[in-house]
Fold this sequence. Notes:
This protein is an all-alpha fold. It has eleven helices and no strands.
Amino acid sequence: MVCNVFLLHAQTKLDSLDSLIKLNETLVIDTAIKLDSLQNLVEDLQESYARMGDIKQQMTVLEKILVIDPLNVKASSILVRTFYVQKRYKEATIEYKRTKKNFEYFKGRSGFGPYHANLAETALLVGDYKYFGHIYDDLIAQDSTAENYVVYGIVEYQRTGNKTKAKELFNKAIEIDQTIDIPKEIRSDLGL
């Protein structure tokens, strides 16, 4: 409750992230909020800026997160997408390479993520379908839900045109859940 009130106050009243950090330091001392909670507050702040359309402030927060935690896959992935939609492709490419490296560094470690969906969304945006497949192969190895197979299958079908792989993925989804929602046109085209 205190965190939500503080976040709302921060979104509407603070002029800079530096002020937020100073307030958070006091809040941490006064209420014994852990560092993870502080990071969540800052991540929530960047999401709030994004919802308000204040891309400049969002990027400032993301960049400060990455100064504090340069291996933060989530912040880095969001920063890639932010650069990309602004057509700042050089910066997006540099940050995307860093994001992939950090993802691989943490992948499979206890307590990591889950950042698969976040980075997969970024891979789709930049058109890196091969890496999207790599992410989803790892995700399915950890969490082989029908939904994960369907998402992967749709990307294979629509983005890469690999109907053989898509059919294999959809069939695995159907094995898990016969009622899984697969678009009718895909079912018809692949004979599912």
